[in-house]
Structures are given as structure tokens and as C-alpha cells.
Design goal:
The complex is a heterodimer of chains A (223) and B (156). Chain A is 28% helix and 19% strand. Chain A contains 8 helices and 7 strands. In chain A, the strands form 2 sheets. A 4-stranded parallel beta sheet of chain A has the order 3-2-4-5, sandwiched between helices. Chain A has a 3-stranded antiparallel beta sheet with strand order 1-6-7. The longest helix of chain A has 17 residues, at 39-55. The two termini of chain A are 29 Å apart. By secondary structure, chain B is an alpha/beta fold. The A-B interface holds A 9-10, 40, 43-44, 47-52, 54-56 and B 52-54, 57-58, 60-61, 97-98, 100-103, 140-141, 144-145.
């Protein structure tokens, strides 16, 4: 899922000062899963912002709405009625949803409520860890299902580096596993350690963000 | 400023309590009580882990002067998933939000009880907290919203 984090409350309050009627939009998919933009979180934020701004002397009306999916136009269109009554939209969906809302309601200023950070899983309650960085050239088949691009601090394709701790954790952060340590352990379990002796050549980043904005066309699905 | 001597300020507090904190035979019905110089709205929980952050914030936003949570300790908890630590984190989370919104953190109070409470204990706890709130003064949010919660007199 796409992971996002709230912007600091002070930053949100500063960006809202010049408006009177604000719509807080959440999304019921990824940002709900990562406890940032679901119904519960939007209610927390609405109350916090109301209190904070009221104490600073700003009287702002907040309306809340949770879209089923903020990255689908047919769901975003449901905001049309509400949008006529408000003067700005603060979105708590990921960057994708925010842009779609901004595209559809051009006249309304869109304020980002979150920073979209990564593609991750919920490892434990309250703990999310990155698993993918959408690099566009998947190597999971060669690394036993563990991504060295997203999960190695240095993004090494030929690891491990010399910074692995004795307990198998990364030198950058004592709470993060060295992914190359895990890859080697998994290779041992599969009995295929020799496959890791192969040196990977420098990879092409053409298919990732370095190659410019992506545009994927599937003629079989086009109308 | 010390509000304690301002006679017309009657603190209005919400008390969430886990039903397991009271002695088994005791039942304290969910309603609004007036005792002395404060109002208390009693809310029974099946377990303390059922309190949501937004519920606490909503009460404070709508003008309630204080929120008191009365929990069992982890060892006494009848639910398997509830624990003090989680409650503590949740309380700290709310207090952090309150500090950022210029609302006094003391408006949220948490009391973890290690033995069963009698009704008298319960009333003492609530009265003690109401006194603290009286010293603190009214919630700055009181009377600022149209849908004001804090007119408890009307319910009695």
C-alpha cells in the first residue's frame, strides 16, 4: 500500500488561516490502512484543527468527506456538490489522489495534508516498513523475493557492504535488517548460495522516475 | 488566574470508566450527574481499549472542561488485547495534540486502578479531578461552537 504521514499540525494550521470553509478529504484505501486519512483520522484532525485555529482566533468551518478511492475519477466526482460550498480543499489522500482532486476542481485551492512517503506493508500494528520503490525493473527473482533497491540504505545490487552489524542489522539504523544478510540467509535455505556469486551489472533506470514521467498504454483496454 | 473561587464556573467533565474497575455488584448507570459544584457525564466501557482518540478530542472540542479515564491495570484486564502501555501511548498521543492546539494537557486525566473500586472511591476520584479542573478554569473552546455539548444542566 501507499504510505503517507501527516504534515505537522502547525504547518496545517498555517496553511488554513486564510480560508473560511474548508473540506477535509480522506480516502478509504491505502491512507486508511496506514492510519492517516481514514474516517477516524479525519475526525481527529478536524477536531484538532478546529481547536488549534479557534485558540489562535480563526473561525473556520470544516466539512469532512471520505472518498472510497481518491485515485478514481468516478469517486472524486462525488465531491461536486460539497465543493460548491467550500473555498478550499485539504486532502489526506496520497499524492495521486491529491492531483486528481486538484485536476477536477481547478478553481479550488488544494492543500496537501500529508506527505506521501513510500510503498510499504504493515509489519506489526503501528509499524510500517518499505518494501518497494517502484523502480521499474524488478529483480526479486534474483534476490529471493527481497528487494535490495528499496530495503538497502545504499540500494546495492551486489551486497552486502562492510557496514552490516554482527547481529545482521544495518549500520545506518540498528532497528533495520541488512537486506543482503537476509538475502544470503534465504539463499542458504534454498540451497542456492552460488547464485549470489554472480555480479550484477549496473542497472538501467530508464523505466523508473529517472526516465521521465511514465505513460503506460494498453491498446486492448482503450476505448 | 485561579478560577477556583469563581462561583459560577461549574466544571463539566466526562468520565470514561471500564466496567471491570467497579466491584461486580455495583452498577453506575450511564447518565449525567450533578454532585456539589460539578457535572459529570459517566460513560461505561466494556474495556478501556475501546476509547478512541477522536471521541476524547470531540468532547474537548465541544467544550467539555475535562475528560477522565479510569482503567484497570494490565494484570486485571479481562480482555487479552488491552494493555496499559497502549493506553499510555494513546493518552500521550492525545496530550501531544492538545499541546499543539494550545489546550491544557491536564484536561485529559488517566487513572489506572489496580484493585476494584467502590462507588465511594469512584466519586472521590471524580470529585478530585473536578477540583483540579475548577482550578484550571473553563475550556477555552466552551461556547465557541453552535453545536455546544457543554450545557449539561439541560439534561438533568
Amino acid at each position: 500500500m501507499i504510505i503517507a504521514e501527516w504534515k505537522p499540525l502547525s504547518e496545517l494550521m498555517t496553511s488554513l488561516k486564510s480560508y473560511k470553509n474548508v473540506l477535509l478529504v480522506g480516502c478509504a484505501t491505502c491512507v486508511t490502512e496506514c492510519a492517516v486519512g481514514g474516517d477516524r483520522e479525519i475526525n481527529i484532525l478536524a477536531s484538532s484543527l478546529r481547536m488549534g485555529l479557534k485558540n489562535k482566533g480563526y473561525d473556520i468551518n470544516f466539512t469532512t468527506y471520505i472518498l472510497e478511492r481518491a485515485c478514481e475519477l468516478r469517486f472524486v466526482k462525488k465531491l461536486t456538490k460539497i465543493a460548491s460550498k467550500i473555498d478550499s480543499i485539504m486532502s489526506f489522500s496520497c499524492g495521486i489522489g491529491m492531483q486528481l482532486i486538484a485536476d477536477h476542481y481547478i478553481k479550488k485551492p488544494l492543500l496537501p495534508g500529508v506527505n506521501t512517503t513510500s510503498l510499504a506493508i504493515r509489519e506489526l500494528p503501528g509499524l510500517w516498513t518499505t518494501r518497494c520503490c517502484a523502480c521499474g525493473d524488478c529483480v526479486l527473482g534474483e534476490t529471493f523475493g527481497l528487494c535490495p533497491i528499496a530495503r538497502c540504505a545504499k540500494g546495492l545490487m551486489n551486497g552486502p557492504c562492510g557496514g552490516t552489524r554482527k547481529n545482521g542489522y544495518c549500520e545506518i539504523d540498528a532497528n533495520i535488517h541488512c537486506i543482503w544478510h537476509l538475502i544470503i540467509e534465504r539463499a542458504k535455505i534454498r540451497g542456492n548460495l552460488s547464485s549470489l556469486y554472480k555480479i550484477h551489472k549496473p542497472r538501467s533506470w530508464d523505466n523508473s522516475a529517472h526516465g521521465g514521467p511514465k505513460r503506460i498504454i494498453r491498446n486492448d483496454l482503450c476505448l | 488566574m485561579d478560577y477556583y473561587f469563581i462561583s459560577d464556573f461549574l466544571p463539566e467533565i466526562a468520565v470514561f470508566y471500564c466496567q471491570q474497575t467497579l466491584n461486580n455488584r455495583v452498577k453506575l448507570p450511564e447518565r449525567i450527574y450533578r454532585r456539589g459544584d460539578f457535572f459529570a457525564r459517566i460513560i461505561i466501557l466494556p474495556c478501556s481499549c475501546k476509547v478512541e482518540v477522536y471521541q476524547i478530542l470531540k468532547l474537548l472540542e465541544k467544550g467539555i472542561d475535562g475528560v477522565q479515564l479510569i482503567f484497570c491495570s494490565q494484570k486485571k484486564c479481562r480482555f487479552l488485547i488491552c494493555n496499559d502501555k497502549q493506553n499510555e501511548f494513546r493518552i500521550n498521543y492525545v496530550r501531544n495534540i492538545l499541546s499543539q492546539t494550545n489546550i491544557e494537557e491536564r484536561r485529559l486525566s488517566c487513572f489506572i486502578k489496580k484493585t476494584k473500586l467502590t462507588v465511594n472511591n469512584f466519586i472521590e476520584l471524580t470529585t478530585g479531578y473536578a477540583k483540579q479542573i475548577k482550578n484550571l478554569g473553563p475550556n477555552p473552546m466552551k461556547g465557541t461552537l453552535n453545536n455546544d455539548y457543554c450545557r449539561m444542566e439541560t439534561f438533568i
